[in-house]
Amino acid sequence: MYQADLHIHTSVSDCSMSAEKILELATMRGLTHIAFTDHDTTQRAAEHVELAESYGITAIPGVEMSAYDFANEKKVHILGYGYQSNAHIEAIGKETLKRRDENCRRQIEILKDLGYRIEVAEIEKLGGSCIYKQHILDYLVKTGQSEAIFGKVYQNIFKNGGPCDFDITYPAAQDAVRAIKADGGYAVLAHPGQQDNYAALPGLADAGLAGMEWNHPSNGQPDRNKIEELCKKYHLFMTGGSDFHGRYENTKTALGQYPAHESSAVMFQNM
């Protein structure tokens, strides 16, 4: 049996739940295979694989790298699976996390100027080595300064041209693919339906892309049909996952709700 969710985040990055809590839920949902794909870091990846095995679930190390297609001006997320080392992934990921942390600290200072009461040390406790906007928003809810994580503060300040609506510069998507491949892993284009970045595929395939995320909350049936056609054309396998973030995801997707395509099982064959 192959019941896999290959797109799961933990509290190491921007999920409200620890790997342990997620694995407890995974056993209840009947998952047999998983991958934790924290953003831009392999921190605790090996530990998470061992932890999953203790729950009777087969896992491979994972990561989700934030990147950009500069030619087409589109954000691109690249999932990495089954890497044998992490030097190339970490070289890119550490710089991305540094920029993201600096970006969020700048947003915190803007919020202070707007009159919000913020203790940075308390926000730092909510995350790992990097602050994410979800940690800031969660802190504002917990201190009674916002009614919901994705409420008015999020919509008016962090989105829609608000004072904190700015982002970082990301690495090139092809470089992310090359890094994962150089570390002996499988590089997969994440949720192309969400970011509408199909035009990046030829270049990503040339760089060594191995698969595309077929099943995802943001991929409608037209997207899945398109992904199937493209995977045949470029000889790629298909994956899938819930993109689980716990309370830190606006769509509140359930763990295991978007199981991976059976062709992704190829990544587990040599374990």
UniProtKB/TrEMBL annotation:
> SUPFAM superfamilies, from UniProt?
PHP domain-like
Pfam families (UniProt xref): PHP
Which InterPro entries does the record match to this protein? Answer: PHP_dom, PHP_domain, Pol/His_phosphatase_N, Pol/histidinol_Pase-like
Molecular function terms, GO-annotated: 5'-3' DNA exonuclease activity; 5'-3' RNA exonuclease activity
The UniProt record lists the Polymerase/histidinol phosphatase N-terminal domain at 4-69
Protein name according to UniProt = Polymerase/histidinol phosphatase N-terminal domain-containing protein
Annotated source species: Hespellia stercorisuis DSM 15480
